[in-house]
Amino acid sequence: MSNIQKKTDVILIGAGIMSATLGTLLKELAPDWEIKVFEKLPVAGNESSNEWNNAGTGHAALCELNYTPEKSDGSVDITKAIKINEQFHLSKQFWSYLVKRNLIRNPKDFIMPIPHMSFVQGEKNVAFLKKRFEALSNIPLFEGMEFSDDPATLQEWFPLIMEGRTVNEPIAATKIDSGTDVNFGALTRMLFEHLQKQHVEIHYKHHVKDITRASDGSWSVKVHDLDSGQIETHTAKFVFIGAGGGSLPLLQKTGIPEAKHIGGFPVSGLFMVCKNPDVIAKHHAKVYGKAKVGAPPMSVPHLDTRYIENQKTLLFGPFAGFSPKFLKTGSYFDLIRSVKPDNVLTMLAAGVKEMALTKYLIQQVLLSNEQRMEELREFIPTANSADWDIVVAGQRVQVIKDTKEGGKGTLQFGTEVVTAADGSVAALLGASPGASTVVHVMLEVLEKCFPQQMNEWRRKITEMIPSYGVSLADNPQLLQEIQKSTEQTLGLVEKELVYS
Ligand SMILES: Cc1cc2nc3c(=O)[nH]c(=O)nc-3n(C[C@H](O)[C@H](O)[C@H](O)COP(=O)(O)OP(=O)(O)OC[C@H]3O[C@@H](n4cnc5c(N)ncnc54)[C@H](O)[C@@H]3O)c2cc1C
Q1: pLDDT value of position 500
Q2: I need a surface site. Which of 1, 17, 23, 398 has the fewest CB within 10 A?
């Protein structure tokens, strides 16, 4: 075992979509900076970013009902939906920039147009969906959204869901054609290929074990080379912890005050995947339902047309579950090891508060295959068990922290960027809306960690991402230009959009 000391400008930990995007942005903004990546697995994009480990929805709040909660006065709050939609536009603009410059090729290999629909049953849910539709459909960001409670129209929109269905209660759906299916695994791999060409050193099978402050203020990263068994120490002025579920333990090792009082709660997932080509051919949409009472927002059931390995396929889920691992390839001790003196009270408070979630997860873990089929039959009444297999999805580590609104030990369902006060280290925690908003989240990392460089970089960022710093909701003209250009570049034009 030897100890090798190496210096660099930037270290990215983890080869998922987050590090891939930050590395690509930095190479455009500061091409001379030396960047190194350490990934414990032999390839890029094989944890949460892998196409089989996430649902591949380009989250733009076109169909996800949990982004538009009902307020106590009965109105629908669309604030979050607007925010997420605008953030997805940032991602599409950056991907278009990369395609136009030939930095990545064949957008069809990572993004495909697919209608996004919401589907509900029961009088109360139909009334909610109608209100949601009325609140969103006049906003240019959601232009083209349609609502219907007519079974004949729904039959046209999703024949597989209507096949064999007895309609004895109100049902309704919304549909919008500008939705997408994103293969985040393929995109991650493309971005790492691009980074390799840009002379970024990417070290696979290198497991980061520790991060400590060096005497000159830079960071020392201790890395285990899994092939040679050597322990290496690399130093950098800036470290990004993009280790997905593995980010929290590494952030804790930095010892920065901002990492205190934060815990993580892992939620695992399963999808059902259809293996009957005739069934797959009958469906062409991502159809999101409404979460069951007590279910966490990320467990909203959905029936998705997906494009994986150049094939159209059909997935249903996710079913939530519990595993103490923070990564699919993690350890059963991950959860227990993440409990530290500074976060133990936060974690215990969350345990007491989240009894309903615990109960829900236990119920989900105990589901038999036939019970899962019953849930699927709420979407596809004619579903046959012989047509469906189970695939294990990625782990999501939900952030637990103390908040003003929720008090001690509040479970968070969003993503969180935690940075040191001097901006020398940043970590990405949390799961949803996740990869879809990656460009927005990585721009936040740049703003927090490189405030001095931002003045110089702003022009280039705006060239790459024209709506950077601008509200698209307030600028329909810019929205129209951007939408037209990204749809053309990324090949997303399934149907001509008509603007009023
Ligand atoms: C079931 C499920 C469904 C989802 N659905 C969607 C969706 O529909 N749309 C969407 O936008 N998002 C979705 N997400 C979220 C999305 O997948 C994640 O936000 C995103 O992939 C996270 O990317 P990442 O780069 O942070 O992490 P990852 O892709 O997990 O990458 C982290 C990398 O770090 C490596 N690593 C970890 N620890 C170390 C270490 N100590 N040393 C070296 N390397 C290390 C890992 O091996 C891994 O390769 C979903 C997630 C799940 C689990």
Answers
A1: 38
A2: 1
User: Peptide bond before 381: cis, by omega within 30 degrees of 0?
Assistant: no
| Best mutation site among 12, 17, 25, 48 for ligand 1 pocket (most ligand atoms within 8 Å of CB) | 48
Cite the beta strand spans of 67-115 per DSSP E.
111-113
- Interval 156-168: pLDDT, tens: 999 999 999 998 8
75 Cα: distance to centroid of ligand 1 (angstroms): 34
- Protein residue with its CA nearest to atom 50 in ligand 1: 54
Q: Which residues approach ligand 1 with their CB closer than 6 A?
A: 13-19, 38-41, 46-49, 53-57, 59, 184, 207-208, 242-244, 246, 250, 269, 318, 327, 393-394, 396, 428, 431, 433-436
107 is a domain residue: yes
| Segments forming the whole domain that contains residue 467 | 3-489
Which residue is closest in CA terms to ligand 1's atom 31? 16
Domain count, the chain: 1
For position 19, what pLDDT does the model report?
A: 98
Residue 376 within a domain: yes
Whether omega for the bond prior to residue 113 falls within 30 degrees of 0, making it cis, is: no
Q: Which atom of ligand 1 is nearest to the CA of 223?
A: 42
Instruction: Round the average pLDDT of the chain to a whole number and report it.
Output: 93
* pLDDT (tens digit per residue) in 17-66: 999 999 999 999 999 999 999 999 999 999 999 999 999 999 999 999 99
Does a structural domain hold residue 497?
no
Read off the tokens for 351.
Answer: 């345990």
Q: How far is the CA of 397 from the centre of ligand 1 (A)?
A: 10
For the CA of 317, the closest atom of ligand 1 is: 1
- The per-residue b/e assignment along 215-242, b for 16 or more CB within 10 angstroms, e otherwise, is eeebbbbbbbbeeeeeebebbbbbbbbb
Separation CA 256–CA 376 (nearest Å)? 45
Q: Which two tokens stand for residue 348?
A: 């215990």
Give the β-pairing of 171-176 and 146-148: antiparallel
What is the value of pTM for the model shown?
0.95
CA of 267 to the centre of ligand 1 (A): 13
Q: Which of 26-35, 209-218, 353-362 has the lowest mean pLDDT?
A: 353-362
What tens digit of pLDDT does each residue of 71-118 get? 999 999 999 999 999 999 999 999 999 999 999 999 999 999 999 999
Residue 397 tokens read as: 């580590």
Phi–psi pair at 325, nearest 5 degrees: -75, 145
Pairing of the two strands 231-241 and 396-403:
unpaired
H-only helix segments in 354-475: 355-365, 369-377, 438-449, 451-464
- Is 253 inside a domain boundary? yes
The ligand 1 atom at the shortest distance from the C-alpha of residue 393 is 1
Q: What is the CATH number of the domain that holds 137?
A: 3.50.50.60
Adjacent-strand bridge partners of 307: 312
Q: Quick one: DSSP state of residue 378?
A: T
